[in-house]
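Dear all,

This email documents one entry for the complex benchmark we are building for the journal club exercise. For each entry we list the sequence lines for every component of the assembly. Then comes the predicted three-dimensional structure of the complex as a token string, followed by one or two observations. Please use this as the template for your own entries, and keep the labels exactly as they appear.
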Amino acid sequence: MAESILEVEGITLRFGGVTAIHNVSFQVNEGELYSIIGPNGAGKTSIFNTISQVYRPQEGEIRWRGNSIMGEMPDVVANLGIARTFQNIELFPQMTVVENLLLGRHIRMKNNWLSGMLWTPKARREEMENRERVEDIIDFLEIPEWRNHPVALLPYGIQKLVELGRALAMEPELLLLDEPVAGMNLEETEDMARFILDIRRELGIAMIMVEHDMGLVMDIADRIMVLDFGEKIAEGTPEEVQRNPDVIAAYLGSGDLHIGEA
Amino acid sequence: MMTALQLAQTGAGATFLQTLVKALALGSVYVLIALGFVIVFKATQVLNFAAGAIAMAGAMFMSILISDGGIPLLPFDNPLAPAEGEAASIPMWGVHVLIALVFAALFGLVLERVAIRPMVGQPLFAMAVVTLGIEVAVRPFNLDATALESRNLGVPWKAETWELAGAIVPKSYVAAVVLAAIGSTAVLLFFRSRLGVAMRAVAFDQEAAMAQGINVGRVFAIAWGLGAALAALGAITYGMAPFPPGGNVSQEIHPILAFRVLPVIVLGGLDSIAGAIVGGVMIASAEIFAGQYLSQYNDTLGSGYSTIVPYLVMLVVLVVRPFGIFGTPEIRRV
């Protein structure tokens, strides 16, 4: 079995009297595609927000490669190699695709502000290298024709890809994908699935994917965790999870099983 | 020796040149303060209403440093101060300006840490009101420190002038243009750096910026530090004679200086460096040229009519281009 890179142990997150996550534990292994599913409001996105430390869980422990990341600032977590996309796209709307992706390169740029200001040869070389990496990603995602468009003007599906590209530009070791195919049509969903599989195969990046599209999740995830009302009710391979009576009850009970739906 | 405000009597060309120099000089002051506004706005999306108080505090600090030979708030003497009754050499004066700017930057950092950082993630309107609160809180200190008198800034060239093609060109005006050029270049270069890009990202979306590994708190601090230093440089520049404060920090003129720059940033666009520069020169030109060439209608217009010209320009701009000449219009997909 592959080495685990992220360990979440017994985290509990409360907002006032509401317990969003209750005593949830899981781990993600090197190169794994781990998926989190569950009805709306089950706490899936909250788990992402605790991993990136936007929310601070009151109890529990989150370890990245053996070291606790509890209490770190979100930018520090990003610098450790944990990138994310957002459920509602959070790109920089007035910037072009290239500029958005270059921002993803921020943490990989080492030149200081002075050499950047003076545009020294070293800074220029670094800019060129990063620009090349960005172009690679644009090619990888097959969006070269949108390269210089402000992202606010792009179609929704393309914006989703750009956000994925920005996360990839950070060269992360773990990618958090929050509903990567939400609102997409069948064709766009298939494209996105292909990119996610390529990311795993070609780049070897581990991913945690929150998604409502059960078809997609069952097709591509290695392991799945099911949440309901902030609690983990099942975990396992797609086959195991599909057969689990608790899962069936949670979904049928809430009438919230979106098979094949965006 | 002629005073600078006195017009040379040698014809229209010289009058025009002299008016132009005056406009550029006032424009330079506007540019510096406007850049201070813009840099804070670019990072935080907040109009910093405390800019005036911070600017004046910087100029006050400088005046105490150089004219009293003291170090404000500390029981030490300033070892660099010129001897009693003597003017500082130009390089030494420059050193004092730099020290005052460092003080203003630190002051900005402290204010950011104490009053602005806790507001991260709060509505922008609330943050803007906090800056207004800072203005109100800092102003009494400024006025107390002046003891309600004008305080000298020890400008080495006082109100000396050069003569150029019959026009009188005050040295201070040239210095103002030079200082604004240095300030603008520094800011333009800064925004080419990685940090400048990070600042733009923070302005758009703090959460997404953090997810890219950008330290939002640090960006806020840098914006406030830089903004404070630029505003203070503007206030010090305006303190050079023959600008109205007459070589002083004035407890009457300096506190409202920043508000006179509002038309500039509205014209140029709140988030545009180029807009601050072009807008500063344009607004100052409108003000100075109207003051010079409409002065024959003084009786009808009333004295001091030129000071409202910037606001008239601002009104027109707001109607035609609400985001300013160079500002970023909001992009929406239809």
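Observations: Chain B is about 65% helix and 5% strand. The first helix of chain B runs from residue 12 to 44.
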